[in-house]
Amino acid sequence: GGDHTITYPILQAVAEKHGPVGLVHVDAHTDTGDTALGEKIYHGTPFRRCVEEGLLDRGRVVQIGIRGSSYDPDPYQYCRDQGFRVVPAEECWRKSLVPLMEEVRTQMGDKPVYISFDIDGLDPAYAPGTGTPEIAGLTPAQALEIIRGCKGLNIVGCDLVEVAPMYDVSGNTALLGANLLFEMLCVLPGVK
């Protein structure tokens, strides 16, 4: 649901119960901007606000599928400075993400993890119904590999954001989003 701003208050509540959490973040964008049009809270800033409030276990944050244009010559520097692992989309092209997710499972360990999936992490050929599409993204099969690769983690919450059905008359983006949410429910702890 909604734009990625929604993850910020969710992570405030999750951290209140669990402390700082690991994050598996699938997106075209890092969403670590500082401001837009003078506003500190918008869909491009939630993870910077989360860092500032200590909501994330920064050594257990992985961002997958990142790509697209930027105003900054090194758009991932802030993330790397925080200890995040950034996996640009081009590192995912033409291959299975099962080996990556084995590494991610090791990185996350048995501590609490949150999954945040922005539909624009997928290529707009599969999910055009989003407000900030970026070419050369992940495939639906890779999305399934990421989500299914989270099975066994101590998942304490998840979201799927930025679906804008009115931008996709075919309905495929909403269908894909619904299926990805179903897959997330299936990897929650205790689900058989």
Structure described in brief:
With 192 residues, this protein is an alpha/beta fold. The protein has helices at residues 7-18, 46-52, 77-82, 98-108, 140-148, 172-186; strands at residues 21-26, 56-66, 85-88, 112-118, 154-161. Helix 1 (7-18) packs parallel to helix 2 (46-52) and helix 5 (140-148) packs parallel to helix 6.
Provide structural commentary:
The two termini are 25 Å apart. The mean pLDDT is 96. With 192 residues, the protein is an alpha/beta fold. The chain has one domain (4-187): Arginase, Chain A (3-Layer(aba) Sandwich), CATH 3.40.800.10. The longest helix is centred in the last third of the chain and has 15 residues, at 172-186. Helix 5 (140-148) links the parallel strand 4 and strand 5 (154-161). Helix 1 (7-18) packs parallel to helix 2 (46-52) and helix 5 (140-148) runs parallel beside helix 6 (172-186). A five-stranded parallel beta sheet has the order 3-2-1-4-5, sandwiched between helices. The protein has helices spanning 7-18, 46-52, 77-82, 98-108, 140-148, 172-186; strands spanning 21-26, 56-66, 85-88, 112-118, 154-161. It holds the Pfam family Arginase. InterPro entries: Ureohydrolase, Ureohydrolase_dom_sf, Ureohydrolase_Mn_BS. GO terms for molecular function: agmatinase activity; metal ion binding.
Q: What is the helix content? A: 25-40%
Give the total of beta strands. 5
Q: Which band does the percent of strand residues land in?
A: 15-25%
CATH top level is Alpha Beta
* Biggest sheet statistics: 5 strands, parallel
Protein name: SPEB protein
Organism: Psophia crepitans
Pfam family, one: Arginase
Family: Belongs to the arginase family. Agmatinase subfamily.
